[in-house]
Amino acid sequence: MLNTTQATFSNLHIYRFAKSSNNAGMENKEIRKANLEALYEKRQHESGMTKAQFAELIETSPAALSQLLGPTPHRNIGDKMARKIETALDLPFGWMDVLHSNEEPSNVAFRGLNDTKGSYPVISWVSAGQWMEAVEPYHRRAIDRWYDTTVICSEDSFWLDVKGDSMTSPAGLSIPEGAAILVDPEVEPRNGKLVVAKLEGDNEATFKKLVIDAGRRFLKPLNPAYPMIEVNGNCKIIGVVVDAKILNIP
Fold first, then answer.
1. pTM, 2 dp
2. Domain CATH number, residue 204
3. pLDDT value at position 73?
4. Is residue 73 part of a domain?
5. Has residue 41 got a pLDDT over 60?
6. Do both 54 and 138 map to the same domain?
7. What is the 3-state secondary structure (H, E, C) of the chain?
8. Mean pLDDT over residues 125-151, rounded?
């Protein structure tokens, strides 16, 4: 456990090392100004924050903030002000003294937690092919596997385990073998949708992308190694894929 003196020394050591590593060619006053500009611009872009609101956030006046920012600032950001900004914005000690304005933005954004909208059964591809043709309702209570979804869909929806690599794409959208797809029979199959269909003479259903071009309809695999299948009355669309899960990630 570090005591207060040890913790302060540790923080100073860390940020001084970072300064010497990352800030070559820039004076400390320039680094602090660039970081302050980046902090304000980020909040302005994300929430429309005004300069007056940002000044209040870092516990200073709009006039003082204007003196710190701008192409020809009238004041430098001193040690006391730098630590004050770090405290107000919950930044680590010494953050203002290491250049951050040129960092790559994260490609991951947190969108919040979604509530589960329902749970649906996992059925076989043979059962999927007969789903809408069954004389009696499917006995759902006999099904052992059910998956949740955050998508609103009809009560007749069901999950399928993806088999084979025909929907595994080398680029763009890819649904690999072992994933699970949620199929809604009530969604209208439109051009570009991923669908589950049953071809005439086949016992099992198939999973492809529906392509409609000049009145002609095709079932297109996402994997370019597989051919497209033209359909002209010999195919029945069972449902549209509305959700997918990647299971058992290694």
1. 0.55
2. 2.10.109.10
3. 65
4. yes
5. yes
6. no
7. CCCHHHHHHHHHHHHHHHHHHHCCCCCHHHHHHHHHHHHHHHHHHHHCCCHHHHHHHCCCCHHHHHHHCCCCCCCCCCHHHHHHHHHHCCCCCCHHHCCCCCCCCCCCCCCCCCCCCEEEEEECHHHHHCHHHCCCCCCHHHCCCEEEECCCCCCCCEEEECCCCCCCCCCCCCCCCCCEEEEECCCCCCCCCEEEEEECCCCCCEEEEEEEECCEEEEECCCCCCCCEEECCCEEEEEEEEEEECCCCC
8. 70
